[in-house]
């Protein structure tokens, strides 16, 4: 069994912001919790070391938005928290759609940032007041916004592929596939529409139009018998 990331000093965090005073402030906030160890600070999203549990990323660096870099970093195993002074609806939704696990406004302070860090590493839902206001007003049906990687992982998984097969198809690790699935589950829980089983998740994806029924064609491995079409089973989402 792997080490608990919430043991003292085990939860590793990176901070990317182009204002030194913000980095120093966030470091001070996080240093008050003995479970957290800041291992990387930078003013650009390049050269982020592997193995970080949570990355806190400012969405505007040196005068430009970094949503593309957010999406790139979200494809890695670490969880990404968008941390921004820009709280417009479109910005919040764009960050979540790009793969951010949480959105924390800079004016929401230490308590919300710390809680976001501790919950995302445990794959539990947490919504700040800023994000909650946007999500509630997004669409009446409280539909869920998944990143392209999350949607792809779910689609392949729904086609009865094993997670190992999904990982090979996407060119990522099994751990990363599990992270995409867990992240989608957390987003549905945040929207008030929990999906604890694979069948529940499939139903939610159909309801939101994220996946069309004709896309679930049934995956056949090279060892499958002729005419056999596996179906998605209602196994719990790990």
From TrEMBL:
PROSITE patterns: RESPONSE_REGULATORY (PS50110). The keyword DNA-binding applies. Keywords: DNA-binding, Phosphoprotein, Sigma factor, Transcription, Transcription regulation. SMART domains: REC (SM00448). Residues 12-121 form the Response regulatory domain. CDD domains: REC_NarL-like. Coiled coil: none annotated. The modification 4-aspartylphosphate is found at residue 58. The keyword Lipoprotein does not apply. This is Response regulator transcription factor. It comes from Actinomadura vinacea.
């Amino acid at each position: 069994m792997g080490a608990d990331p919430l043991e003292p000093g085990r939860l590793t965090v990176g901070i990317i912001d182009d204002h030194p005073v913000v980095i120093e402030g966030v470091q001070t906030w996080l240093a008050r919790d003995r479970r957290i160890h800041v291992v990387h600070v930078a003013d650009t999203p390049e050269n982020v070391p592997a193995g970080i549990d949570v990355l806190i990323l400012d969405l505007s660096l040196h005068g430009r938005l970094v949503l593309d870099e957010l999406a790139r970093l979200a494809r890695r195993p670490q969880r990404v928290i968008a941390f921004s002074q820009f709280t417009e609806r479109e910005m919040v939704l764009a960050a979540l759609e790009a793969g951010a696990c949480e959105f924390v406004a800079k004016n929401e302070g230490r308590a919300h940032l710390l809680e976001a860090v501790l919950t995302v590493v445990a794959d539990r839902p947490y919504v700040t007041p800023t994000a909650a206001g946007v999500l509630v007003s997004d669409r009446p049906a409280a539909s869920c916004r998944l990143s392209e990687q999350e949607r792809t992982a779910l689609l392949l998984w729904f086609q009865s592929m094993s997670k190992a097969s999904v990982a090979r198809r996407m060119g990522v690790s099994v751990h990363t596939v599990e992270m995409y699935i867990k992240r989608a589950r957390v987003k549905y829980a945040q929207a008030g529409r929990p999906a604890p089983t694979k069948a529940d998740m499939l139903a939610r994806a159909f309801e939101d139009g994220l996946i069309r029924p004709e896309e679930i064609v049934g995956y056949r491995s090279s060892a499958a018998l002729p005419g056999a079409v596996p179906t998605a089973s209602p196994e719990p989402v790990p």
